[in-house]
Amino acid sequence: MTVTNPKFEFRGINHLALVCSDMQRTVDFYSGTLGMPLVKTLDLPGNLGQHFFFDCGNGDTLAFFWLADAPDAVPGISAPAGLPDRDELVSAVGSMNHVAFAVPPEKFDEYRKRLKADGVPLSITLNHDDSPEGASREIHEGTFVRSFYFQDPDGVLLEFACWTKEFTESDVAHTPKTAADRNVPSAS
């Protein structure tokens, strides 16, 4: 299904900005372990901190702030507490739950082996589908994306994902939930 935006010509993500506790450790992980080139660095005015940008493909960048006064993360609120196959996937409203990097389907298994060889703890491979469980161990006709999850040194949840089918109009079939559908009391 080819879709076009009648209002704006978006060309992907310019950058997604996250916050880290140790910029050197972040550079080591994203440039070293994941091989993302560091393409821009800057010190923020007034000793506020630093802002570094990593190329994550197709001209898109993943950026990190190191902020001198940033509070520590709160797992389960700032981001999920762990990997989806072992822990809660829940994070707070307004948080960034995870970043999924698109990888070529033909290299998916190879990339998983590389990260595992580098000692990165990984989730199981999930073959996402429309079943009640949302995923299966095996790839089948209903599988629309394959993925696995891992965390960066600050606990940011990351995912390598590859689409396995083209979407059709039948793939948009759910009524959006509202704030009233939440399982937590609203702040009023």
TrEMBL record:
InterPro entries xref list: Glyas_Bleomycin-R_OHBP_Dase, Glyas_Fos-R_dOase_dom, GlyoxalaseI/FosfomycinResist, VOC_core
PROSITE patterns: VOC
Residues in coiled coil: none
Superkingdom of this protein's organism: Bacteria
Keyword set, alphabetical order: Dioxygenase, Lyase, Oxidoreductase
Pfam families for the chain: Glyoxalase
UniProt xrefs under SUPFAM superfamilies: Glyoxalase/Bleomycin resistance protein/Dihydroxybiphenyl dioxygenase
Molecular-function annotations in GO: dioxygenase activity; lyase activity
PANTHER family with a match to the protein in the record: GLYOXALASE FAMILY PROTEIN, METALLOTHIOL TRANSFERASE FOSB
Name of the protein in question: Catechol 2,3-dioxygenase-like lactoylglutathione lyase family enzyme
Annotated organism of origin: Nocardia globerula
Lineage, broadest ranks: Bacteria, Bacillati, Actinomycetota, Actinomycetes, Mycobacteriales
